[in-house]
């Protein structure tokens, strides 16, 4: 799931990526063009309600390809992504539009 919140007074949007409680992926992170596809940049953290989330600030009015990278080099797409596009590696990337 994705949650988007405009940042007051800035041309930015806070995007929160959310995995459900009890997801089967183990440790996970969001990777995309916004963090150089670096799995250490935005790991998911467990929340008090049992879900997992991580947030990034992104420039408004743009498209950002991303995916979730989970334990065991397992790549997962978000079914709530705004769009999908070919990754160039035989699979699709998710896209978040700000």
Average pLDDT, rounded to a whole number, is: 95
Radius of gyration over C-alpha positions, nearest whole angstrom: 13 Å
End-to-end span in angstroms?
Answer: 15 Å
Task: State which percent range the strand residues make up.
Answer: over 45%
Task: Indicate the percent of residues in helices.
Answer: under 10%
Backbone shape: globular
Structural class determined from secondary elements: mainly beta
User: What pattern of helices and strands is seen along the backbone?
Assistant: EEEEEEEEE
What is the number of E strands?
9
Number of helices: 0
For the largest beta-sheet, the strand count, sense and barrel status come to: 5 strands, antiparallel
Low-confidence stretches: none
What does this protein look like?
With 98 residues, this protein is mainly β. It is built from no helices and nine strands. The strands form two sheets. Strands 3, 6, 7, 8 and 9 form a five-stranded antiparallel sheet that branches. The radius of gyration is 13 Å and the shape is globular. The chain starts with a strand and ends with a strand.
């Amino acid at each position: 799931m994705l949650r988007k919140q405009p940042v007051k007074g800035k041309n930015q949007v806070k995007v929160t990526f959310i995995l459900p409680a009890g997801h089967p992926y183990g440790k996970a992170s969001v990777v995309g063009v916004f963090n150089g596809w670096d799995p250490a940049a935005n790991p998911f953290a467990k929340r008090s309600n049992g879900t997992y989330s991580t947030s990034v600030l992104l420039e408004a009015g743009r498209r950002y390809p991303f995916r979730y990278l989970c334990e065991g080099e397992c790549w997962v797409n978000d079914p709530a992504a705004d769009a999908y596009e070919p990754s160039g590696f035989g699979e699709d990337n998710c896209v978040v539009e700000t």
